[in-house]
Write the structure tokens for this entry.
Amino acid sequence: MENDFVRNAFKMKLKPGFENEYKLRHDKIWPELKNLLSESGIKDYSIFLDKETLTLFAVQKISKDFNFSYLPSHPLVKKWWAYMADIMETNTGNSPIEMPLTEVFYLS
């Protein structure tokens, strides 16, 4: 079952002064959004903050057949993005600016 998942990592950027608010909003993440993420094939999702650069580093396990176009088109995800847009760097349409990261080492 574990082999049905792969690691995915990316970074995003927080706006200055919103470190606590970002954590607070994620501490109170909507249950229906958590369910949607899980049901879409995401598990073990973590986000870390580099306080010096305000870079957010996200790492998650996604199912091998994960559909990358599904979540960005979902109304609930769009609602979450609008909710977060005031504290993050975003694209037009409120999606967070994400930069994929390449794995260079993994110890299992």
